[in-house]
Amino acid sequence: MSQPVVRIGVFDSGFGGLTVLRALLEQLPAAEFCYLGDSARLPYGSKSRETVARYAVESARLLESDGAQYLVIACNTASALALDAIRESVRVPVLGVIETGADSAAAVSVSRDVLVLATDATVQSHAYGAACAERGMRALEQACPLLVPLIEEGWTTANPDPERSAVTRRVLQLYLAEAAARAADAGMTPDTLLLGCTHYPLLRDMLGSLVPANMRILDSAQTTARRVQRELGAPAASSSSASSRRCRFLATDSVEKFQSLGSRFLGQPIREVEHIDLGG
Ligand code: DGL
After folding, report:
1. Which residues in the chain come in under a pLDDT of 70?
2. Whose CA is nearest to atom 6 of ligand 1?
């Protein structure tokens, strides 16, 4: 007898969580998804714990009422600041990306020192620091508040204007130099770079050319997808078909903006997006 189709809710502050949805679509070929991007209220990364928790709880409840049997909080900031509040407010299992990101670092780091790049709010929460410490590692958490707007503007290596990607490259160099100085002061030797923000996978190539060749660059998307698959006992993917047709897309701001920006993060066109109003 075939297994019943499971419905998974995926939540992010906007578009970046589509990098996680992409891995979920590949890894769970029989599941259905509903993705909610709270694009009207982003960025979360510069907001307080109270505000992020309020927004994230509202969004999680909406996904649960839409029929989600399992929730993935794809947003690092919401996972760092609001995971407990979300778990208390819904009845279905909830997985955040901090734990899975730390798991992926723990699997490869030899020096047990990890450099984590993230938003201001995620860094201030020290959620990665705590998750790494639980796994016997030290985390050097570096806030990179300029990166989300630069990536959303498309100032990456994919931009046809090299002057624009050069600006992002320079900003990254400054953040990495600051992190290297702090690592030296703390006697840390990070051999692993964890992308602690949904947007940063779009800078992977650029980062690869700026960090030492032996530094591993990781994000939590694949580890998260494998964990969901394990927890749900879902069949493993036999092919890598990741069609977005198995996903309902909800956005709290312009559907056109979600379609155009979102397709860059998802790596394929997003055909239909529904607007939803969660209030202010
Ligand atoms: N999704 C957020 C994160 O992963 C980045 C964008 C935002 O600040 O809302 O931290």
Report:
1. 1-3, 238-241, 280
2. 43
Domain that holds residue 127: 99-220
Closest alpha carbon to 179 in 148, 142, 139: 142
Residue 2 within a domain: no
The domain that holds 60 is classified in CATH as 3.40.50.1860
Catalytic residues: 75, 197
Domain count, the chain: 2
Could you tell me if the CB of 82 is within 6 A of ligand 1? no
Question: How many percent of the chain have pLDDT more than 90?
Answer: 92
CA of 196 to the centre of ligand 1 (A): 9
Could you tell me if the CB of 13 is within 6 A of ligand 1? yes
If you measure from the C-alpha of residue 174 to the centroid of ligand 1, how many angstroms do you get, rounded to a whole number?
20
* Reported pTM: 0.95
Say if ligand 1 is within 6 A of residue 19 CB.
no
CB burial of 19-54 (b: ≥16 within 10 Å; e: otherwise) equals: bbbbbbbbbbbebbbbbbbbbbbbbbbebeeeebbe
Same domain, 204 and 234: no
pLDDT (tens digit per residue) in 205-228: 999 999 999 999 999 999 999 999
Cβ(255) – ligand 1 distance below 6 Å: no
Evaluate whether residue 189 is within a structural domain.
Answer: yes
Say yes or no: 106 and 216 in one domain.
yes
